Amino acid sequence: MDAQTALEQLATIYDRELQPAEAAAEAMTIYLEMGERIAELDVIRASAKQVLADVLAEIGADRLETAAGTAYVTAPSIRSSYDAKGLDNLKVAIPSLALLLAPYRTEREIAGTLTIRAGGRAKEV
């Protein structure tokens, strides 16, 4: 199924007055099929990126401009992170540490997300 067909099919789900389980199954099928196509495209993009990396290495450059676009290697950097669960456990073990770390701790609530996986069990919605 191509993207245009998928969009058209999704746009008419409500108009066709499908039963909830039928609408969900159709939307899920489209979602999963398009996910497979995206995965295939990601492999192609990764291969193209590898070719560009190889060309940059071959010519000994970190930047290349063509009519199609620009490819460049970013400067190296360091990304750091801390084990929040480990620090939380340490705060319990050493209560005075909690006071020291409190100004540097931020929490934010993250809403739940809808997860869709292939091969589910057939249940009535």
Question: What distinguishing features does this structure have?
Answer:
two-stranded antiparallel ribbon; single chain; 4 helices; 125 residues; mainly alpha
What's the overall average pLDDT, rounded? 93
Largest beta-sheet characterization: 2 strands, antiparallel
Judging from the principal axes of the Cα atoms, what is the shape?
A: flat
Level of helix content?
40-55%
**Order of strands in the sheet with most strands:** 1-2
Strand content: under 5%
> Which spans have pLDDT < 50 for at least 5 consecutive residues?
none
Helix/strand-derived category reads mainly alpha
Number of strands: 2
Order of helices and strands: HHEEHH
State the end-to-end CA separation.
Answer: 25 Å
Separate helix tally:
4
Summarize the structure in words.
The chain is mainly alpha-helical and 125 residues long. It is 53% helix and 5% strand. The chain contains four helices and two strands; from the N terminus they run ααββαα. The chain has a two-stranded antiparallel sheet with strand order 1-2. β1 and β2 form a beta hairpin. α3 crosses α4. It is flat. The mean pLDDT is 93.
